[in-house]
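WARN retry 2 of 3 for item q-0093 after timeout on previous attempt; input resubmitted unchanged.
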Amino acid sequence: MHEDFWRKRWAENQIGFHEGKPNAHLQRFSERLRTTAQPRVLVPLCGKAADLAWLAAQGFLVTGVELVREAAEAFFQEHGLSAREERDGGLPCLAGERVRIAVGDFWRWDFRESAPIDAAYDRAALVAVRPEDRERYVRHLLAPLRPAAPILLVTFAYDQTRMSGPPFSVDAAEVQRLFASRCEIEALEDVDILEREPRFRARGLESLREQVWLLRVR
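OK item q-0093 returned
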């Protein structure tokens, strides 16, 4: 999954994709992920996202998968949480009370050891995956989820001729192509965010739409 690229980004602290606070869409729509009193939620390619701690504080049991160990360690350090060494899905895992992060390539995470999972949250994973790997990513994302499990998905849509990813453009047609055969799809929000993302304007974009989806596994 472009391992060297992402390891280099973290090593050089080039992590503009990292949000230092819980995502606004997650805060607004998180109850759509709640299927039980303490749902288990999968967060692929999670980095050190503050979303993990926020979900845990709302009563979710969080399983993240992250390639770069330094990112996983930073999450626990920055949130003042202790973690023990375990295994999860065949990968090394840093495990706290309500958040656990399996460390390694998402493709190598053996979901059979963690399934079934109640919900999933993808803010910056699908848009980081190379286009030729998207179908594989979607299969791996959906495999451990229960029937009717909800997925909160955040994507970007922009003119890919003006900027090369990541983050890659994943527009509404692509969401339909990837998920329609396996999931019900509900569009929750669609807003142009270019004004608050000047780094993307500097890269040549004239529009950057952030789109939020609720998917439900059939």
